[in-house]
Design goal:
Layout: H1 3-20, E1 30-36, E2 42-49, H2 59-72, E3 77-79, E4 86-88, E5 98-106, E6 113-116, E7 126-130, E8 133-136, E9 144-148, H3 154-167, E10 171-175, H4 181-190, E11 193-195, H5 203-229, E12 239-243, H6 252-264, E13 270-276, H7 287-291, E14 295-299, H8 305-308, E15 331-336, E16 341-346, E17 349-352
Helix pairs in contact: 1-2, 3-4, 5-6
Bound molecules: adenosine-5'-diphosphate (ADP) and magnesium ion.
Length: 354
């Protein structure tokens, strides 16, 4: 769709839907202007109210426009939620001097098909996670949080990411209180350090092991920090601690250590990957640590505000159209901190998990 056609579509959708709400009786009340980037991959449109207007130009209007258009423009465009984003129009006419801007991507995101976990996809500091979406771990904190109910694909998705970082030489440590069979096979095959509760052991034994493992990561941070101070190596290999189903063992001490890794690990590439059914502060991780995550993912085939409550505070997922395919797992929402956009997510389909 070119800019002119898109502008017409947007105007006609808004005209019928907004006017029925009694707010904007005629299309003279506003104008729409569309701009694509040079590659036509992304773009934005401006909603330019023609002041004086009878309606408040605010978050409510912003969200109403998003909710009218996100379904209407699918699958030609994927609208990014958020806002209101006020921009200057540079019009000399006061009536049209400002606009609400909405950003979009052309087309939709789609699922990557990954044949084997031995193929490397990382390039230029980015890990592709969908067709049309790359995780830029160079410009983010490196820490990752994945939430979602059992069976939604948290462990398999984590395995994809771990295998990718393993292929570029990352040191990986896995803490797995529930002993996931896919993760266990993966760790065996790659000779990755793996901690799980052994049958018959005193539960304190595993807690102690977790504390030791997290403390070791903090020691690595300390060593790397001192070599940064000495002006030595700064291009470290990632050191990743992955905790699967973190609510299954969490103690006050482990939560404090996890928070320390998240708050201190970024500059020296010591990263925490964490998965849990819900990322609450009581059982899993503090809100400060949560806010420092470079990548946040909610896996749910139909995400509700409740599902998003911890990772995407105050976010209403109902305006995000998630493209469907033949797989039920690995579906949800994703946000990387550097662009702050919460977008639909389809985890890579892994044909051969083991
Ligand atoms: N991305 C994926 N590609 C292929 N199969 C998947 C994928 N995600 C999940 N599955 C299938 O669904 C099952 C459950 O996924 P899993 O990651 O164990 O869920 P969770 O960790 O959230 O409980 C897996 O054993 C696998 O068979
Ligand atoms: Mg799991």
């Amino acid at each position: 769709m070119n800019a002119v056609n898109l502008q017409k579509v947007i105007e006609s959708c808004l005209q019928s839907a907004l006017s029925t709400e009694g707010e904007i009786a005629s299309s003279n009340g506003y104008q729409v202007k569309v701009d694509f980037d040079s590659l036509q991959e992304e773009g934005h449109f401006d909603f330019i109210p023609n002041y004086p207007v009878k309606y408040p130009v605010d978050k409510v209007l912003n969200d109403k426009i998003l909710s009218i258009l996100s379904g209407a423009l699918y699958p030609a465009l994927t609208l990014f939620t958020g806002g209101p984003n006020f921009v200057k129009t540079n019009s000399a006419n006061f009536s049209k001097a400002r606009a609400l801007r909405f950003y979009f991507k052309t087309g939709t995101y789609s699922r990557m098909l990954v044949d084997s976990l031995d193929t490397s996809y990382i390039y230029d500091g980015c890990l592709p996670l969908m067709e049309g979406f790359k995780y830029d771990f160079k410009h983010n904190s490196g820490h990752i949080a994945i939430s979602g109910a059992s069976g939604n694909g948290k462990s398999v998705f984590a395995e994809y990411m771990l295998s990718q970082f393993w292929l570029i030489g990352a040191k990986i440590v896995i803490i797995d209180p529930k002993l996931d069979h896919n993760l266990w096979h993966f760790a065996q095959k790659k000779e990755i350090e793996y901690h799980y509760p052994h049958v018959g052991d005193n539960p304190n034994t595993f807690s102690g092991e977790v504390t030791n493992t997290l403390s070791k990561a903090i020691n690595v941070i300390g060593k790397r920090q001192s070599s940064i101070l000495k002006g030595k190596e700064v291009d470290f290999n990632p050191y990743i601690v992955f905790i699967d189903e973190a609510a299954a063992f969490s103690t006050k001490q482990s939560r404090e250590l996890m928070e320390k890794i998240v708050l201190m690990g970024r500059a020296c590439k010591v990263w925490l990957f964490i998965s849990a059914q819900a990322m609450d502060a009581t059982n899993v991780i503090s809100s400060i640590a949560r806010d420092s995550m470079g990548l946040k993912i909610v896996l749910s085939s139909n995400p509700s505000s409740e599902d998003c409550r911890y990772l995407f505070k105050n976010f209403d997922p109902s305006d995000v159209v998630i493209p469907r395919d033949e797989y039920k797992f690995g579906v949800g929402l994703i946000e990387q901190k550097s662009d702050g956009r919460i977008v639909p997510f389809l985890a890579p389909y892994i044909a051969n998990i083991n």
